[in-house]
């Protein structure tokens, strides 16, 4: 007689815990997960191919639409890559504005995430609070750029809109309010006993595993490793900013929550410092239409981790090859490591723990049989 | 005289009144829960959205009736009706308009406890009959949960009965009237244990494990739609009335007249306060995991409940 000792539980592509379609097949023994097989690619949109078919000026709008939440990170990354190929220097004021926008984006992304993870833990009150307070940042975006979600502020050669001194004051006022809220979340996630029970020692990722599996962003930093593109490979004006790279040694979902909540406070500090030291001058230089042949890799620290863009140009107005590696993709191997040996009830909160953004990461791989060329799209 | 008795059973304080209370308390719960979270809650149907639960009920009744092909049809059809009927029946034992309930007999407290157990059994059958994996997990969780809270709950509910020397809910209310004191003042530990266990009975946060939305969709209710879901929701609302009526009757003096305020009005005010306490509690916590919940109930609630029994036996709070 032989019954299989494990059962296979599919999770997704449609599931209330997943905001985007992605599939995980869990092998469950009783209430313990013993294996997991991810199946990605449900929301492949052909963005890279579209980028190769459009001109450089057009591409920035496509890069903006890679992700709804990290729009500024992706446009920054795109603009940096293309500007380096073009050989143009971005004016310092534009770099500061890009940085301010990036940090505002981090604030809104992290507060969205705090709400989501609270929702996964059944803590809907914190979810409602976090999303209500996030509105302040979205309204600020609307005033700064005209768009709440897509901002179209970065452009090749700088930014499209300046931050006036009145706007700077308005940002400062909003931040003053938001800082109190961020500290309040930090207090809640550190002290609320039911929330702690659901997050402590859940989804453990040891520092050695985090490094070996190439985790990025808050997931990496929550495992106690100081990895942050803003510090390791400064872009925009981050080398002039005083800020701490937040890490946590708890290596679990609690650590990821704590890191993000503290990063919100750090981001507020960066924005304040940047507004204080905003250089005078132009905020945009003219970008040429054609790009000399060459290739370039550009990295930024998106709210979810390191975002990497690769561009290869052939001297025409369109890129020869464009590759985007969104942070979620880098975190998938680490996620699969975290998901083994846990309770079934902890699956949603661990999945949410890496702040997944599946539609940003889905790429296609063509593997030609017989040939050695694997071409990733 | 017969006509008056029929009126009592069907209209006031019988079925119709209780169903209205059920809808009212769903509104109280939703509104307060929303306000705690910084939302508005129901707003448009009736003054301040008070008719929203009725509108939801009517809408669900008129929806398409979907029956999964593989379900156990007999159970699938019967369980929602029984789930709504059971708390309605049990509510006849609760003193609502006077310290004496419509139906009262020595030992009806045990019937109430039994009906709580039966509710969970119905939930288990509901999940089991729908043959969906989410429902199956939800129903197993619900049964597991009952194994943990049922015992402290049963232990603690006996304490007012010991003190009143009556196993009837009406008898306990009359005992509180006679000594002019609330059970809560005599047995505060018991009240606390009952409130915690009732959160689990009603499957509210932090014990909404059987219907954990982000884990198992809607748990044991996943496959139910339309009029069956409407019946389940009404059953849940009626259970809320039953639970708050029980807490009020055993610990908060029950339906007693206060100067000129009639007993029924006092009952409504007190039960609404209990419902408010539940909805406030469910806004404050995250959801426990099933193993944490069971361990917590056995480790903490059971000894506390036993301590309450010992205290009552020693003559304290009796």
What's the short story on this structure?
Chain A is an alpha+beta fold. In chain A, 47% of the residues lie in helices and 15% in strands.
Summarize the structure in words.
The complex is a heterodimer of chains A (377) and B (318). Chain A is of the alpha+beta class and 377 residues long. Chain A is built from 14 helices and 10 strands. In chain A, the strands form 4 sheets. Chain A has a 3-stranded antiparallel beta sheet with strand order 1-2-3, with no helix packed on it. In chain A, α4 packs antiparallel against α5 and α4 (92-120) packs antiparallel against α13 (347-353). The longest helix of chain A is centred in the N-terminal third of the chain and has 29 residues, at 92-120. The radius of gyration of chain A is 21 Å and the shape is globular. The mean pLDDT of chain A is 86. Chain B has one domain. Chain B contains 13 helices and no strands. The longest helix of chain B is centred in the middle third of the chain and has 32 residues, at 133-164. Chain B is globular and about 55 Å long. The relative contact order of chain B is 0.15. The model of chain B has no long low-confidence stretch (mean pLDDT 86). Chain A binds chain B through residues 9, 15-17, 31, 118-125, 128-129, 132, 192, 194-195, 197-198, 343-348, and chain B through 36-39, 133, 137, 205-206, 208-209, 212-215, 217, 283-292.
Topology readout:
The complex is a heterodimer of chains A (377) and B (318).
Chain A: E1 7-11, E2 23-29, E3 32-39, H1 47-53, H2 56-64, H3 71-86, H4 92-120, H5 124-145, E4 154-155, E5 158-159, H6 165-191, H7 193-199, H8 207-212, H9 217-221, H10 229-232, H11 253-276, E6 294-302, E7 305-313, E8 319-325, H12 327-338, H13 347-353, H14 358-361, E9 365-367, E10 374-376
Antiparallel strand pairs in A: 1-2, 2-3, 4-5, 6-7, 7-8, 9-10
Chain B: H1 2-10, H2 15-36, H3 52-61, H4 73-91, H5 108-129, H6 133-164, H7 169-179, H8 183-186, H9 188-201, H10 213-216, H11 226-251, H12 263-284, H13 290-313
């Amino acid at each position: 007689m032989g019954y299989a000792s494990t059962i296979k539980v599919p999770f997704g592509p449609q599931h209330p815990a997943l905001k985007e379609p992605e599939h995980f097949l869990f092998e469950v023994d009783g209430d313990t997960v013993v294996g997991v097989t991810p199946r990605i690619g449900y929301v492949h949109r052909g963005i890279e191919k579209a980028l190769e078919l459009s001109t450089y000026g057009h591409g920035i709008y496509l890069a903006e639409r890679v992700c709804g939440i990290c729009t500024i990170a992706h446009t920054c990354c795109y603009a940096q890559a293309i500007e380096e190929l073009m050989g143009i220097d971005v004016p310092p004021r534009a770099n500061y504005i890009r940085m301010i926008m990036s940090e505002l984006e981090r604030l809104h992304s992290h507060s969205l995430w705090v709400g989501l993870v609270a929702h996964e833990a059944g803590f809907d009150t914190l979810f409602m609070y976090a999303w209500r307070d996030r509105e302040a940042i979205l309204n600020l975006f609307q005033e700064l750029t005209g768009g709440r979600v897509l901002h179209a502020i970065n452009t090749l050669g700088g930014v499209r809109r300046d931050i006036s001194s009145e706007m700077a004051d308005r940002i400062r006022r909003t931040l003053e309010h938001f800082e109190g809220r961020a500290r309040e979340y930090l207090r809640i996630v550190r002290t609320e006993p039911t929330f702690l029970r659901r997050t402590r020692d859940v989804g453990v990722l040891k520092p050695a595993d985090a490094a070996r599996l190439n985790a990025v962003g808050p997931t990496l930093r929550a495992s106690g490793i100081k990895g942050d593109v803003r510090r390791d490979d400064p872009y925009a004006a981050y080398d002039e900013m005083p800020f701490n790279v937040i890490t946590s040694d708890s290596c679990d979902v609690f650590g990821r929550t704590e890191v993000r909540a503290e990063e919100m406070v750090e981001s507020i500090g960066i924005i304040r410092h940047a507004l204080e030291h905003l250089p005078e001058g132009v905020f945009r230089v003219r970008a040429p239409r054609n790009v000399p042949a060459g290739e370039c890799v550009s990295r930024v620290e998106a709210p979810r981790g390191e975002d990497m863009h690769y561009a290869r140009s052939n001297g025409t107005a369109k890129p020869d090859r464009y590759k985007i590696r969104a942070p979620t993709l880098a975190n998938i191997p680490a996620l699969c490591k975290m998901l083994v040996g846990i309770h079934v009830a902890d699956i949603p909160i661990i999945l949410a723990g890496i702040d997944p953004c599946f539609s940003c990461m889905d790429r296609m791989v063509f593997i030609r049989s017989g040939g050695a060329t694997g071409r990733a799209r | 005289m017969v006509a008056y008795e029929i009126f009592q059973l069907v209209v006031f304080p019988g079925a119709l009144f209780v169903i209205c209370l059920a809808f009212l308390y769903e509104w109280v719960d939703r509104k307060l829960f929303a306000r705690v979270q910084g939302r508005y809650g129901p707003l448009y149907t009736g003054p301040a959205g008070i008719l929203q639960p009725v509108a939801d009920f009517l809408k669900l009744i008129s929806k398409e009736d979907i029956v999964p092909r593989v379900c156990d049809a007999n159970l699938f059809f019967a369980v929602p009706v029984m789930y709504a009927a059971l708390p309605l029946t049990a509510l006849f034992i609760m003193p609502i308009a006077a310290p004496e309930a419509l139906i009262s007999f020595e030992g009806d407290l045990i019937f109430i406890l039994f009906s709580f157990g039966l509710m969970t059994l119905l939930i288990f059958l509901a999940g089991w009959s729908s043959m969906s994996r989410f429902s199956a997990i939800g129903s197993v969780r619900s049964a597991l949960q009952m194994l943990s809270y049922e015992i402290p709950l049963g232990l603690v509910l006996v304490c007012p009965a010991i003190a009143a020397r009556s196993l009837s809910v009406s008898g306990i209310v009359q005992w509180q009237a006679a000594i002019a004191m609330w059970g809560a003042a005599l047995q505060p530990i018991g009240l606390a244990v009952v409130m915690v266990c009732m959160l689990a009975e009603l499957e509210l946060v932090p014990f909404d494990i059987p219907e954990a939305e982000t884990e198992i969709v809607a748990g044991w209710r996943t496959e139910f739609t339309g009029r069956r879901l409407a019946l389940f929701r009404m059953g849940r609302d009626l259970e809320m009335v039953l639970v708050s009526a029980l807490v009020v009757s055993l610990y908060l003096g029950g339906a007693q007249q206060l100067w000129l305020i009639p007993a029924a009005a006092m009952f409504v005010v007190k039960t609404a306060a209990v419902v408010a306490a539940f909805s406030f509690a469910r806004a404050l916590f995250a959801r426990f995991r099933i193993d944490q919940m069971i361990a917590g109930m056995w480790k903490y609630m059971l000894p506390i409940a036993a301590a309450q029994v010992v205290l009552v036996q020693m003559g304290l709070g009796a």
